[in-house]
Design goal:
Number of helices: 17
Shape: elongated
Helix content: 40-55%
Bound molecules: uridine-5'-diphosphate-xylopyranose
Radius of gyration: 24 Å
Distance between the termini: 72 Å
Low-confidence stretches: none
Number of strands: 14
Length: 464
């Protein structure tokens, strides 16, 4: 399609887990729009142009290929593309601040603010700026102030369009979302900008799933959605600790309560802890926000969700340690999975990172296995690399090990030949199922001492 035929020119700044797949989907569904994705990281952009995409996401390459070169473009050239676009999505990272005021809780907005200044500097016409990154409530106002402070008499409308896609299912979530939330100011210009964004998604999503709201509600909804999801996991994880004490089975409890349609059955899988780039960061953001407004009880309530998650991770390591006769020193421990969940190569905030570090502190010999995340695991554990073994093949990872700990729920781990694995392990052999995905009775019958989460332990000797 010739350049002038495009009915909208959309730019996205930040070609990460959110910006890349979201723009690929928009471009694939809307050939009438020109969609350009820009990133400061040249390697990443080159990867987006190749068949080795910078992130692993099932189905993503097919979607990218439908549109790449037709109406989807990846580049590092920012200024020219700012000038050319009417709509700019900003999807740069907003990590938790590691310094100064709010360190450890509030979001580091330096990249966002830089984007706003870049846009202001390059723009020659009015634009709609769409917040895609998760941001503290009221960021839109601050950004509007920065953007409005221009001498060119340009007008910028800010729209909040928070991302609800989950990694591993990003393509499905983008193609068929529960809802898309679009918030704007309720002024004449704000409402026009809102409609312009609604129009994009209406190309493939039914209108009744396109929810609109004011700016603050949209920004807050993102933080609250993630906090509620994380809260469910912490709730069931807290119950898993109790189940182990009273010989209850957390899966049975989750099933029973999930049958209540008011509670629902999703997000009730007890685990070694939640990870990912969003949950912890967003809860801490909410906590910081509450503290800022003096809502200390509310802040403490949400902070406890993170505390239970930390507790669950440390409880898992303690279980390993005490089962292995109170010492893991020099014992070979195979970790099955390092990604923060299955079907992704992403390891950000993965519980596996904490568990590896704790085991290393105890001088265990840790072998990490994962079908997709070993590259990221190596980067995360850079300083320890010569002490850790990385082995994609789980059979080799488990060879001569004293224990296996399942940390990611990859299907692959359900299908292994555990008799073959058991035969080559040190005895007594232990398995810790941090995701409750294995057939525990079968493993016990093979000879393993089995430690599921939130269920009675299946052990061949009397527990101390
Ligand atoms: C990001 C945010 O972290 C999250 O809060 C939000 O909900 C969605 O956007 P994600 O896409 O997972 O999430 O982040 P990441 O994969 O780190 O991608 C951000 C990209 O922005 C990186 O590729 C980085 O190179 C790029 N970037 C960052 C820029 O292009 N310019 C900058 O100034 C800063
Ligand atoms: C999450 C939100 O789901 C998504 O809407 C938002 O846009 C970004 O943050 P994501 O981090 O990709 O998505 O993964 P998610 O599937 O929500 O899982 C987060 C963590 O919770 C993972 O570590 C997962 O293993 C864990 N989890 C999830 C559990 O431990 N138990 C469950 O029942 C569900």
């Amino acid at each position: 399609m010739a350049e002038e035929k495009f009915t909208k020119r959309i730019l996205c700044i930040g070609a990460g887990y959110v910006g890349g797949p979201t723009m690929a989907m928009i471009a694939a569904k809307c050939p009438q729009y020109k969609v350009t994705v820009v990133d400061i990281n040249e390697d990443k952009i080159n990867a987006w142009k190749s068949d080795e995409l910078p992130i692993y996401e099932p189905g993503l390459l097919d979607v990218v290929k439908q549109a790449r070169g037709r109406n989807l473009f990846f580049t590092t050239e920012l200024e020219k593309n700012i000038k050319e676009s009417e709509i700019i999505f900003v999807s740069v990272n907003t990590p938790t601040k590691t310094f100064g005021e709010g360190a450890g809780k509030s979001a580091d907005l330096q990249y966002w603010e830089k984007c706003a200044r870049d846009i202001r500097g390059a723009a020659e016409s009015d634009k709609i700026i769409v917040e895609k990154s998760t941001l503290p409530v009221k960021t839109a106002i601050a950004m509007e102030r920065i953007l409005s402070a221009n001498e060119k008499d340009l007008h910028f409308d800010i729209v909040s369009n928070p991302e609800f896609l989950a990694e591993g299912t990003a393509i499905r979530d983008l193609e068929n979302p529960d809802r898309v939330l679009i918030g704007s100011k309720e002024t004449e210009n704000g409402l026009k900008a809102r409609e312009s964004i609604v129009e994009i998604f209406a190309n493939w999503i039914p209108r009744d799933r396109l929810i609109t709201s004011n700016l603050m509600s949209a920004e807050l909804s993102k933080l609250v959605a993630n906090s509620f999801l994380a809260q469910r996991i912490s709730s069931i994880n807290s119950i898993s600790a109790l189940c182990e004490k009273v010989d209850a089975d957390v899966s049975e409890v989750a099933f029973a309560i999930g049958k209540d349609s008011r509670i629902g059955n999703r997000f009730l899988n007890a685990s070694v802890g939640f990870g990912g780039s969003c949950f912890k960061k967003d809860i801490l953001n909410l906590v910081y926000l509450c503290e800022t407004f003096g809502l200390y009880e509310v802040a403490a309530y949400w902070e406890s969700v993170v505390k239970i998650n930390d507790y669950q991770e440390s409880r898992f390591v303690q279980t390993i340690n005490s089962a292995l006769f109170n010492t893991v020193t020099n014992k070979r421990i195979a970790l099955f999975g390092f990604a923060f969940k299955a079907n992704t190569s992403d390891t950000r905030e993965s519980p596996a990172f904490y568990i590896t570090k704790k085991l290393m502190e105890e001088k265990a010999h840790v072998v990490i296995s994962d079908p997709k995340a070993l590259k990221n695991a190596k980067l995360d554990l850079k300083g320890y690399n010569n002490l850790i073994e990385y082995e994609e093949d789980p059979y080799k990872a488990a060879y001569k090990s004293h224990a296996i700990a399942v940390l990611t729920e990859w299907d692959l781990y359900k299908q292994l030949d555990y008799q073959r694995i058991y035969d080559k392990m040190e005895k007594p052999a232990f398995i810790f199922d941090g995701r409750n995905i294995l057939d525990h009775q079968k493993l016990f019958d093979i000879g393993f001492n089995v430690y599921p989460l939130g269920k009675p332990h299946l052990i061949h000797f009397k527990e101390a």
